[in-house]
């Protein structure tokens, strides 16, 4: 089998390697000529046998939509486009409809495994028509882990279902990472705990919370025991937000994933306007001291301006301060 792979970034580059190693001919295209096998999409399409199979591994959103648009102009009826990126499921439905206008088939495939997938294989979640998935099966087999085939692939449903499953996977990823990270902080802050990485190593085998993410946490601490080279600033690529949006749209409670998403937003604030306001309000109603914003003032100092405007601590009928 010979396929085209569009997008040779961290994921696409490694997937090309794994596919080739497992007997799939791959012609890769990327805007970066250093990694690209061909110079244009047109050249890529001309190289492939019919029906052509094109696997997209490009950023979700505008870039994916633009590539799908370009492909809709150069592909032929019966060709198959597989979106393997992290697209939102409703974008799949739109892109499938667009390609269907020219008889081009579409399926989506959520891919999990990160940069380790080249060696370990990828977990795959596909959405689309059964005959399209059957056509792509040799590619899917080459990507997923060799020994665990039954457990590392699902035909999750219609177009969009693969990415819906991957979106929920990533939402769970947010919650799991946040729980492990909070456990790490609690351990790190306790004076009677003298070996934080040791506790985590002891969790790696046999315990209820053993997992690959835990193994990666131990690895991160082995490389940088105090995490001194990492700032507490966390980006997000969209799937956590979409998971929370789905929870709201369907009235399904997802408090853990939502809190984990918001923790990332908080990580990007040097000083939170909301928490400044909470501090100011406590000061207003209860006369509670605020920590000075001015650098150099010791923690707990009440700034002069606040002292002037602070009301006396309120007292309720029982005589207790509010
Ligand atoms: O799909 C993934 C892992 O499963 C990607 O690494 C993804 O980019 C991670 O999401 P985020 O950037 O929102 O943390």
UniProtKB/TrEMBL annotation:
Signal sequence, start to end: none
SMART domains tied to this protein: 6PGD
InterPro entries xref list: 6-PGluconate_DH-like_C_sf (IPR008927), 6DGDH_YqeC (IPR004849), 6PGD_dom2 (IPR013328), 6PGDH_C (IPR006114), 6PGDH_NADP-bd (IPR006115), 6PGdom_BS (IPR006184), NAD(P)-bd_dom_sf (IPR036291), Pgluconate_DH (IPR006183)
SUPFAM superfamilies: 6-phosphogluconate dehydrogenase C-terminal domain-like, NAD(P)-binding Rossmann-fold domains
Annotated spans, Disordered: 290-322
Organism domain of life: Bacteria
Keywords in alphabetical order: Gluconate utilization, Oxidoreductase
Domain 6-phosphogluconate dehydrogenase C-terminal, first and last residues per copy: 162-318
Family classification: Belongs to the 6-phosphogluconate dehydrogenase family.
Protein name: Decarboxylating 6-phosphogluconate dehydrogenase
Native source organism of the sequence: Arthrobacter gengyunqii
């Amino acid at each position: 089998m010979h396929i085209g792979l569009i997008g040779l970034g961290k994921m696409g580059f490694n997937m090309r390697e794994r596919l080739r190693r497992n007997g799939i001919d791959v012609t890769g295209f990327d805007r970066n000529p250093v990694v690209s096998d061909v110079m244009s999409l047109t050249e890529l399409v001309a190289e492939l046998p019919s029906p052509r199979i094109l696997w997209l591994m490009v950023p979700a959103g505008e870039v994916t939509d633009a590539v799908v648009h370009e492909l809709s102009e150069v592909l032929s009826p019966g060709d198959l486009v597989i979106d393997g990126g992290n697209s939102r499921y409703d974008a799949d439905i739109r892109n499938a409809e667009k390609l269907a206008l020219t008889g081009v088939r579409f399926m989506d495939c959520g891919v999990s495994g990160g940069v380790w997938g080249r060696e370990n294989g990828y977990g795959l979640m596909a959405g689309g028509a059964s005959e399209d998935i059957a056509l792509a099966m040799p590619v899917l087999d080459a990507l997923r882990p060799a020994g665990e085939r039954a457990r590392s692939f699902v035909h999750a449903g219609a177009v969009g279902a693969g990415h819906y499953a991957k979106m929920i996977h990533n939402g769970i990823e947010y919650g799991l990472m946040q729980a492990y990270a909070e456990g790490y902080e609690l351990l790190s802050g306790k004076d009677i705990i003298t070996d934080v990485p040791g506790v985590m190593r002891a969790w790696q085998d046999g315990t209820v919370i053993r997992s690959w993410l835990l193994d990666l946490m131990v690895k991160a601490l082995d490389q940088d025991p105090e995490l001194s080279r990492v700032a507490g600033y966390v980006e997000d690529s969209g799937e956590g937000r979409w998971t929370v949006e789905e929870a709201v749209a369907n009235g399904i409670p997802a408090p853990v994933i939502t809190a984990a998403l918001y923790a990332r937003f908080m990580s990007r604030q040097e000083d939170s306007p909301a928490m400044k306001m909470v501090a100011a309000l406590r000061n207003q109603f209860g006369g509670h001291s605020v920590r000075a914003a001015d650098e150099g003032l010791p923690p707990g100092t009440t700034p002069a301006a606040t002292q002037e405007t602070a009301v006396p601590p309120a007292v309720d009928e029982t005589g207790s301060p509010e």
